[in-house]
Structure formats: C-alpha cells, structure tokens
C-alpha cells in the first residue's frame, strides 16, 4: 500500500513538462514564446532575413511589394486561417492597415509564420519587432530538444545510455 501511495505521489515529478506550443484563445493568438497577436494591435516590421532583405517568414498576399513593409507598421484588423502544423510551426493570415515609411496607408493581407518571424537567432535579426522577453530564446529551443529526446527514449527508439549521453551533450551547450 505504501509503495502504491509513493508511486502516485512521485509519478507527476517523473513526467516531462509539456512543450510550449502556439495556441488561439479568446480572439488572441499566442506564439510559443507567449507573445500575443490580437485585433487592434500594431505590429512593427524590421528588415527581412532573406537574401537582399526579403522577408522569409512574412508573405504579402494582395499585391504590395514585399520591400514596402521594411521598417513599416501595421494595425491588425483581423486574424484568419490560423494553422499550426504537426511540427508546431504556426501560420496566420493577418488583415490590416499598413502604415508605410512615408506615412501613407494601405490595406494589406499577409501570411506570417509567427514563431519564425520573432525568433531570436544570434546570427540574424528578427522580422517582427517584439520586446526582448518574447523572443524565442535558446532556453525554449533547449526545452523542446530535451522533450523530443525524452520522447524517443520513452518510445524505446534509443537506449538509456544514448539518452543520457545526448542529454548531457545538450545541457553542456
């Protein structure tokens, strides 16, 4: 009886925490890092991370030139077609009014891979300007890698020795 009691008490401590994932709740879209997209919010664009400053994770769907978004801002009117792939990459169509660098305005529809657009890769700047506390940090990426590694171990795909070796390798980085 005591063994059963201790098993129930200790089992929650042995389970891995859930991966942070993007989700949509109460007309607000939350990115993996906790950043929220909602109607009425103003998004600020930086320079694209692709070749010649092109955006890699932001696609304009209604005819504006992609370079026109560089250093511009956008007032969100609506969030549509929210998709989260099995690999937890989130996409959203954002309808809004873009305010260009010369203060002119225009209606635009963009598709954003939102987690990718706000990632904090040490070698690249971000495509969407967000406060530093919301940028995907190496801590979030490490947490995801450790959980994937544990899933492989739990399913029997790798041995305990391989799991421990990979885990220590990740934690040393």
Subunit arrangement of the protein: single chain
User: What is the alpha-carbon Rg in Å?
Assistant: 20 Å
Query: What is the helix fraction of residues, given as a range?
Result: 25-40%
Number of domains: 2
Mean pLDDT: 79
Structural class: alpha+beta
Can you write the helix and strand succession as a string?
HEEEEEEEEHHH
- Annotation field: number of helices: 4
- Shape descriptor reads elongated
* Main sheet strand line-up: 4-6-7-8-5
Strand percentage lies at 25-35%
Quantity of strands, as a count: 8
Largest sheet: 5 strands, antiparallel
Ranges with pLDDT <50 over ≥5 residues?
Answer: none
Q: Could you give the distance between the termini?
A: 43 Å
Fold and architecture overview:
This protein has 173 residues and is α+β, with helices and mostly antiparallel strands. It has two domains: 18-136, no CATH class; 137-173. The chain has helices spanning 2-14, 114-117, 138-154, 160-172; strands at 23-25, 28-30, 36-38, 42-44, 58-60, 73-84, 90-99, 105-113. A five-stranded antiparallel sheet has the order 4-6-7-8-5. A three-stranded antiparallel sheet has the order 1-2-3, with no helix packed on it.
What attributes does this structure have?
27% strand, single chain, five-stranded antiparallel β-sheet, 4 helices, 173 residues, alpha+beta
Briefly say what this structure is.
The chain contains four helices and eight strands, in the order αββββββββααα. With 173 residues, it is an alpha+beta fold.
């Amino acid at each position: 009886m005591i063994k059963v009691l201790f098993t129930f008490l200790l089992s929650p401590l042995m389970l891995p925490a859930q991966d942070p994932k993007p989700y949509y709740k109460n007309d607000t879209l939350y990115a993996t890092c906790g950043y929220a997209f909602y109607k009425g919010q103003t998004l600020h664009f930086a320079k694209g991370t692709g070749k010649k400053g092109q955006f890699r994770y932001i696609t304009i769907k209604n005819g504006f030139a992609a370079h026109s978004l560089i250093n511009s801002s956008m007032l969100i009117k609506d969030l549509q077609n929210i998709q989260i792939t099995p690999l937890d990459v989130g996409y959203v169509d954002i309808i809004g009014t873009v305010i260009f660098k010369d203060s002119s305005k225009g209606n635009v529809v963009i598709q954003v891979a939102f987690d990718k657009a706000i990632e904090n890769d040490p070698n690249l700047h971000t495509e969407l300007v967000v406060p530093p506390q919301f940028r995907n940090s190496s801590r979030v990426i490490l947490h995801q890698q450790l959980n994937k590694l544990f899933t492989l171990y739990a399913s029997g795909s790798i041995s305990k020795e391989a799991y421990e070796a990979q885990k220590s390798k990740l934690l040393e980085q």
